[in-house]
Design a protein that fits this description.
Blueprint: H1 2-11, E1 14-18, H2 23-34, E2 38-43, H3 46-60, E3 64-68, H4 77-84, E4 89-94, H5 109-137, E5 140-147, H6 158-178, E6 183-190, H7 196-200, H8 216-226, E7 232-233, H9 237-249, H10 252-268
Parallel strand pairs: 1-2, 1-4, 2-3, 4-5, 5-6, 6-7
Helix pairs in contact: 2-3, 2-8, 5-6
Bound molecules: NADP nicotinamide-adenine-dinucleotide phosphate.
NADP nicotinamide-adenine-dinucleotide phosphate binds near residues 21, 71, 145 and 197.
């Protein structure tokens, strides 16, 4: 109970989760409600948001507000501010993403631009909109989502992994800028997670590496437990090991080729 009160005092009274209707975002919402935060849940699918909101209100006795927004367009900031300007936001989790899988030129350029908008412009805008109130208060937290695919170029998801690299570097820089001002910044660099979106992409087994996927709840708990302790977290022991080998023991060129081979097997050769 004391831990719940400490977390809410540090990062409450309200948290905002962008991309909260399912998968990791819904898991963040559940975990944060369990830690005593009132929540603003943002995504496009109103029904999913509403049903999650009523479950969380009942189960955890917190207040939940839903905001239906498309983060892949340039014009969401005004609506977001209008619907949250009466709230004291102590924690931001930017979780929404779009990934266009496949050979680069087989995806329309609009898909690549949508990845940039949803995965890079929008989190930057969220951070900009909410950082000021946190810094003035001298407390708060910001969490961005990234991916192991962002530690090197990743074929067949090149734009996605580039946008996720943006999140790592942005979060690390802001962590250093704000760590002495009471605002904790963290980037969660996840490996494969069994979310509806990941499963819908129908990845073929990666062959030889075994099943390294993680459940969303575990990823979220590890990430939230790292907030305030480090600028980034890689959830899962096997993911930390794989990432250590690829970043520190393999030459970068070999890591790019290795990642390409895995992704080719997962998404291209079998289709
Ligand atoms: N799953 C994995 O294996 C994996 C691995 C590494 C990193 N990650 C990262 O973890 C995060 C979550 O991944 P995920 O697999 O749970 O799900 P996801 O399908 O990538 O997105 C999850 C949430 O984002 C919302 N969203 C997507 N586009 C949106 C838009 N234009 N406007 C508003 N909301 C939008 C979706 O809701 P609506 O459709 O209702 O809008 C959904 O609630 C992402 O940042 C992803 O890059 C995932």
């Amino acid at each position: 109970m004391a831990e719940r009160a400490d977390f809410a005092a540090r990062y409450g009274p309200w948290g905002i989760v962008a991309g909260a209707s399912e998968g990791l975002g819904a898991a963040y919402a559940e975990e944060l409600a369990g830690r005593g935060l009132n929540l603003v849940l943002v995504a496009r699918r109103a029904e999913l948001l509403k049903s999650l909101a009523s479950q969380l209100c009942l189960k955890y006795d917190v207040e939940v507000r839903t905001v239906v927004l498309d983060l892949s367009g340039p014009e969401f900031a005004e609506q977001l501010l209008r619907e949250t300007n009466d709230l004291e936001i102590g924690l931001l989790v930017y979780n929404a993403a779009f990934s266009a899988i496949g050979p680069f030129l087989e995806r329309p350029v609009e898909d690549h631009l949508k990845e940039l908008q949803t995965n890079a412009f929008a989190p930057l805008k969220f951070v900009y909109l909410f950082a000021d109130q946190m810094l003035r208060r001298g407390r708060g937290g910001m969490m961005l989502m990234s991916s192991l695919s962002a530690f090197q170029g990743s074929a067949y998801i090149s734009t996605y992994s580039a946008t996720k690299a943006f999140n790592i570097v942005l979060a690390e820089g802001l962590w250093e800028e704000w760590r002495t001002r009471g605002v904790d910044v963290l980037v969660c660099v996840a490996g494969a997670v069994r979310t509806p979106n990941y499963l819908a992409s129908e990845p073929e087994p990666t062959g030889g590496l075994g099943d390294m996927t993680m459940p969303p709840g575990q990823v979220v708990r590890e990430a939230l437990n790292a907030l305030g302790k480090s600028p980034y977290i890689i959830p899962g022991r096997m993911n930390r090991l794989a990432s250590f080998v690829m970043r520190h023991l393999m030459p970068r060129k070999a890591a790019v080729k290795f990642m390409g081979r895995i992704l080719r097997r997962m998404y291209v050769e079998q289709k």
